[in-house]
Amino acid sequence: MTVTCAIRYVIDPFKRDAFETYAKNWSTVIPACGGDLLGYFMPHEGTNNIAHALISFESLAAYEAYRSRLRADPAGRANFEFAERERFILSEERTWLRPVEK
Predict the structure, then answer these.
(1) Residue 60 maps to which CATH number?
(2) pLDDT of residue 17
(3) In this structure, are strands 3-11 and 50-57 parallel, antiparallel, or unpaired?
(4) Can you state the percent helix, strand and coil of the chain, rounding each to 5?
(5) Cα separation of 59 and 74, whole Å?
(6) Residue 99 within any structural domain of the chain
(7) Cα dist. 2→31, 58, 65, 98 in Å?
């Protein structure tokens, strides 16, 4: 069963450009490490400090393998360090979703 990790970010509204760079950086790293990146979504209209990401995996076991590869990936580590250094992510929440069967 496919599972999707929905990440809700609270970001610093004055550092949206930094968050967008962070999101773009994941566009190659996540797929290379085994995640199916459905996308990152930036604030556009209304609330200016909430962003989202959706990443799917074949299973929770596949997610665990992905996490190991992501931690070992030089570009992944660099992006995590960029986020820590620039402090544009104030908090994040992860929710696991499954598709509704037709």
Answers:
(1) 3.30.70.100
(2) 97
(3) antiparallel
(4) 45, 30, 25
(5) 24
(6) no
(7) 15, 4, 15, 6
Could you read off the pLDDT of 1-30 as tens digits, one per residue?
A: 799 999 999 999 999 999 999 999 999 999
Q: Is 35 part of a structural domain of the chain?
A: yes
Domain count, the chain: 1
What is the rounded CA–CA span in Å between residue 47 and residue 65? 35
Closest alpha carbon to 21 in 92, 93, 89: 89
The token pair that represents 34 in the structure block:
């085994």
Q: Residue 54 and residue 6: Cα distance in Å, rounded? A: 5
Mean pLDDT of 27-53: 97
Residue ranges making up the domain that contains 52? 3-94
